[in-house]
């Protein structure tokens, strides 16, 4: 059974549970108040005909999973009868703020945001709350956002702990670690990094000998890892932990450079890295199913706006993680 099927069974997410399409009405009026927190109330809800949902992706260029999430949101939104307005932030804070203010001006019923970092959008998202618009965070968590109903995605510290567990399992006596971080400032980068740094702080047998951001970019991971292989001869670098699935070319370069003793730990699962898991060069990866997250957050919006608010898990809806290794990779369906 594929991972997606297993997770769907585990979470029992269906359109029938979320909303009956034959009777679906979306949008809820919110009490007139300057307090952004008012829009997060589960009790004050009256149906309206407003179906507009603004969706902001800070940057779909950070990886194919972001584009996958966008497509899944559009598909689920259409199935629920929502009017999805998806905007790209282009990794520019001014563009992102303008998009959210556009959603406010358009009198959107709700906003879904895939944020660039935990805090930079909080002020404008609270403006949305003051305008009666609830906010839902996808994949990357928010802070200081009073208008936030829920965050749907992984516990990113737990994600990092899963990666740490792979390191400890394969190097029980300690290891010299290279850490390739994702896009700086994102919740994923901050929390996954903290998990690895906590390992090194708590057990001196594990040392982070090199640490640089590759921004989830294949070319950058290749360039940085090449430098590390030159800097650290055999015995100086045991394992490279990368926070995404993008470093397949870097792994192959290490093999071709005569450094197969350097092992790797990844995040997420795409087809390109399946052979590297099968041959054991990649010790494992932590899979979060971002497509499922996108469907779940859209379902949460539909439930919220149709006044089925008890079905929305708040303040966090942490979806399950799966560790994929040589032992189980053949039974897991890659996302891309």
Description:
By secondary structure, the chain is an alpha/beta fold. The chain folds into two domains: 10-31 and 42-154 and 290-321, 3-Layer(aba) Sandwich (Rossmann fold); 156-287, Response regulator (Rossmann fold, 3-Layer(aba) Sandwich), CATH 3.40.50. The chain contains eleven helices and twelve strands. Strands 2-1-3-4-5-11 form a six-stranded parallel beta sheet, sandwiched between helices. A six-stranded mixed beta sheet has the order 7-6-8-9-10-12, sandwiched between helices. Helix 9 (248-256) links the parallel strand 8 and strand 9 (263-267). It is elongated, with a radius of gyration of 21 Å.
Percentage of residues in helical conformation: 25-40%
Order of strands side by side in the largest beta sheet? Answer: 2-1-3-4-5-11
Say what the CATH topology of the largest domain is.
Answer: Rossmann fold
Name the poorly predicted regions.
1-33
Round the mean pLDDT to the nearest integer and report it.
Answer: 90
CATH class of the largest domain: Alpha Beta
Major sheet summary line: 6 strands, parallel
Question: Span between N and C termini?
Answer: 17 Å
Q: What is the CA-based Rg, rounded?
A: 21 Å
Which features characterize this protein?
336 residues; alpha/beta; Rossmann fold; 2 domains; six-stranded parallel beta sheet; six-stranded mixed beta sheet; 11 helices; 12 strands; 19% strand; elongated; disordered N terminus
